[in-house]
Specification:
alpha/beta; about 325 residues; about 40% helix; 11 helices; 12 strands; two-stranded antiparallel ribbon
């Protein structure tokens, strides 16, 4: 049987250090993957003159699965977001952002376990209708929601909830104001909810949801929403469990999937061997679950939890003084 090939994009800043950590753990648990390395971001721009080389796109298409570190898109220089480009190029319509509380972190809550499913290709991030007049006094952007786009991501959320034994799906919207776009998303959600009578369906206006997530986060289970709202809500949820360093992301499409650390590249600590690799380790766990390698995913998650709970070999952001390598070896020791 041929080995599963994974496209690995180390990324920028701390990306290479934390991705190396995740791969070491995957190898130790016996995943037996073959890795094809590719470049993107500033690293690629410096070597090839492109933020996202065609060779990288070809590798992702060929393997169908990628694990990547944080990428930097230069701000204010006319470059399109690399992450948005990847999502649209491969039609990665579902952005899955789980958060859970880990004992030993600085999280403000002790019982968080929420999955946000964000529509990943439409809405305000569709890239359509962005104009500004010559005097730079008037700007416009278009939000695009399609029935097909709404249906596939909402169905994805319900199927995810059913598969993982979740009890409730909450649709976040702003249909009281955005009556066409958000209204259509809510309409489709209500229609699909009838097909999943085994799962509780709830709908909530997005601003009220922000308040309730802070006050009563235990009331949420699976959240599904549009692109912009999902971008904001998923980061809010990460804040409930200690920050983006404790939150992974998966971008799922029909023919490809990309798993990633969702935090920035932190160039100020790049190469210093002090970055927390938890986010990309959790992303690798999502990748294993996608590949139906749940036993290995559970082993890594257990070892990660044990390492953070003990606190002996944690990085600075987790209250410790250990290096990335020491943290990685502690997780491997728990395996």
């Amino acid at each position: 049987m041929s080995k599963t090939r994974i496209t690995v994009i180390p990324g920028d800043g701390i990306g290479p250090d934390i991705v190396k950590s995740a791969l070491a753990i995957l190898d130790h648990v016996g995943c037996d993957f073959e890795y094809d390395y590719a470049q993107a971001g500033l690293t690629a721009l410096e070597t090839s003159g492109e933020l996202l080389p065609q060779a990288t796109l070809d590798l992702i298409k060929s393997n169908g699965i990628a694990l990547k570190g944080p990428l930097t898109t230069p701000v204010g220089k006319g470059f399109t977001s690399i992450n948005v480009t990847l999502r649209k190029h491969f039609s990665l319509y579902a952005n899955v952002r789980p958060v859970r509380t880990f004992v030993g972190t600085k999280a403000r809550y002790s019982d968080i376990d929420i999955i946000t499913v964000r529509e990943n290709t439409e809405g305000m991030y569709s890239g359509e209708g962005q104009i500004i007049d010559d005097a730079r006094t008037h700007a416009e952007a278009k939000s695009v929601i399609t029935r097909q786009g709404a249906e596939r991501v909402i169905r994805f959320a319900y199927e995810l909830a059913r598969r993982e034994g979740r009890k409730k799906v909450t649709t976040l919207h702003k249909a009281n104001i955005l009556k066409t776009t958000s209204g259509l998303f809510l309409e489709v959600s209500r229609e699909l909810a009838k097909e999943y009578s085994d799962i509780e369906s709830e709908e909530m206006i997005v601003d009220a949801a922000c308040m309730n997530l802070v006050m009563y986060p235990e009331r949420f289970d699976v959240i599904v929403t549009t692109n912009l709202f999902g971008d904001i809500i998923s980061d809010l949820c990460a804040g409930l469990v200690g920050g983006l360093g404790m939150a992974p992301g998966a971008n799922i499409g029909k023919d490809a999937a990309i798993f990633e650390a969702v935090h920035g590249s932190a160039p100020d600590i790049a190469g210093k061997n002090i970055a927390n690799p938890t986010s990309v380790i959790l992303a690798s766990i999502q990748m294993l679950q996608y590949l139906h390698m749940n036993d290995k995913a559970d082993q890594i998650l257990h070892a990660l939890k044990a390492t953070i709970a003990e606190g002996q070999y944690t990085t600075r952001d987790l209250g410790g003084n250990s290096s990335t390598d020491e943290f990685t070896q502690a997780v491997i020791a728990h395996l």
